[in-house]
Amino acid sequence: MAFSDKNITIVKASLQYAASFCRAVASVARERKYLATLKGFGLEATKKFVGMIEANDYAQFYAIDGGRVVGWCDIVPKTQEGFRHVGVLGMGVLKSYRGKGLGKALMAEALRHAKKVNSLEIVELDVFESNLNAFKLYESFGFLVEGRKIRARKIDGIYDNVIIMARQL
């Protein structure tokens, strides 16, 4: 998908962007609302993850603005026998870039790749119930609620439920 808004492009993940991806994840994590991690991951761990994505041609796409990762979406297949037909979706968009359609563009690319290239049949995800915008985005792509973990997360004294969603490809 060729997304273009103020020179933003959608590109396939590569080690070239690993450091920028690492900073983007850390930025969203520090908001303490949207990701399971509150700090992000170290650069070496990020390089290892992106290298694994590249080596296996898994679905991971970045929104790039001026050479900087400002959003991402990935779908990584499960590795356990009997579950390899299922991929797990993760995504995030930097705060100042939200509401511009980047999440939609990234997800469309990742879902297309996961189906056509990785032959996945199901994509699943967890979303915090307080993240209404993400929930609506997932619903718009046909994800259905499969379950709920009540008071699954407690940050700064505030509980949040986790909604489990999935979509057949």
UniProtKB/TrEMBL annotation:
What Pfam families does the database record attribute to this sequence? Acetyltransf_1
Keyword presence, Isomerase: no
Keywords, A to Z, come to: Acyltransferase, Transferase
Which residue intervals define the domain N-acetyltransferase in the entry?
8-169
Instruction: Give the PROSITE patterns listed for this entry.
Output: GNAT
Q: Does this UniProt record's set of keywords contain Transferase?
A: yes
Q: Record's superkingdom?
A: Bacteria
Q: Which SUPFAM superfamilies match?
A: Acyl-CoA N-acyltransferases (Nat)
Q: Which PANTHER family match?
A: ACETYLTRANSFERASE, AMINO GROUP ACETYL TRANSFERASE
- Write down what this protein is called: N-acetyltransferase domain-containing protein
Instruction: Supply the source organism for this entry.
Output: Candidatus Wallbacteria bacterium GWC2_49_35
